[in-house]
Amino acid sequence: MNKFAKGAIATGVGVILLVGGGGTLATWNQTNTASMGSVVAGNLNLSSAAGVWTNAAGTVVNVASYKVVPGDVLTYKQTLTVTLTGDLMTAKLSVDGATAANGFDTNATVATTFATPDKPGTPVVPGTAVTTDTVLLPTTTPQVINATTTFTFKKSTTAQVATNASVNLNAIGYRLDQQAPVNSNNL
Amino acid sequence: MKSTRTLKAAGLVLIAVVLGMLTVQGSYALWNTSTGANLGTVQAASFQVDLADAVTGQHTNMTTANGTAATLALTTMPAGVIIPGDSTSATYAGVQVTNLSDAGGDFTIRATTSAPVVRTGSSLAGSLVIKVVTATTLAQCSQADTFKNAVPNAPAAVDISKGATGAFCFQITLDASMPANLSGQTAQIAIPITVNQL
């Protein structure tokens, strides 16, 4: 074997060895910005204004000092402000902590209802009832819902039943629950 | 070799994913919020009616502390004997009824008397002429004119608003037909009073 052949073979082997020794290869690549923008969360909020008690005559009363008798109907009215934002936001309103008129046994009832405000005009258009099945939708500005709680001391109460009785209604509140969007995830 | 190690790594990752999915099971929570209504406490009124003797001023609540009906013994005026058939020979009594309820709104009561019951001296029952009328003041109870239109043993009723008073006056005379052998006897007469919320 001549010298050239030996050198070529040695080089070829060296080259082969280099190639077989691994190392990274660089191929074409390119990057680009996705520009996805920002994801903003919606909102769910509920607040209540101070309420007012009135008796059946429509007189404003201070429940801390007003004593009821059979036949009395006390009504508590307050406005709720509901804030709902979000493209798939829906919610339902309910009463929380509702209680029977415990100290009065079955001689009195307590009930709470919701309605949208009356629309002023001639004649005034009464508001629409909002029940626990009513689906509230998002609005651009907070929406007002009127809450009315009625305490009724039954006129059928006899003898001296429930005289000096009392019932604490402070556990009663309002709850706003988001409803699950269609195709919502389970995470 | 390399391919064997690669397969092993892939297998491990797969298991981890499965485990992760299993442990995430359960309920999910959506947004919710609540607010209080601040309703306060509702209290019932009392049902207190006071009785007061026209002569002595002695008071009693119509209902005792244990919930039973009270009894008020009335003092008659003038003291002394009653002569049968003598319209000027009568004895009188009176009771003031006061509506003491602490109700927040209107609370008017109606006090009504029932038929008199002779508890002792029952032999006199047939001879007693008992008249009950309502009056605006207790001073009217000792005046004969107060009873001139009253029907014996007929009930009387008065409506009393919250914080106000009413009065029942009683006149007792003896019928002229009373047997002489009943002379000198005494009688205790009970007149029930019932009060109802209007």
Outline the structure in words.
- With 187 residues, chain A is mainly beta.
- Chain A has a single domain, classed as Sandwich (Immunoglobulin-like).
- Chain A has one helix at residues 3-20, and strands spanning 43-48, 52-54, 60-61, 67-68, 73-85, 91-96, 108-115, 129-130, 143-153, 166-168, 173-178.
- In chain A, the strands form two sheets. In chain A, strands 1, 2, 3, 5, 7, 8 and 9 form a seven-stranded antiparallel sheet that branches. A two-stranded antiparallel ribbon of chain A has the order 6-11.
- Chain B is mostly beta strands and 198 residues long.
- In chain B, the strands form three sheets. In chain B, strands 4-3-5-10-8 form a five-stranded antiparallel sheet, with no helix packed on it. In chain B, strands 9-6-12 form a three-stranded antiparallel sheet, with no helix packed on it. In chain B, strands 7-11 form a two-stranded antiparallel ribbon.
- The model of chain B is unreliable at 1-26 (pLDDT under 50).
- Classes of the chains: A mainly beta (187), B mainly beta (198).
- Strand 4 (67-68) of chain A pairs parallel with strand 2 (41-44) of chain B.
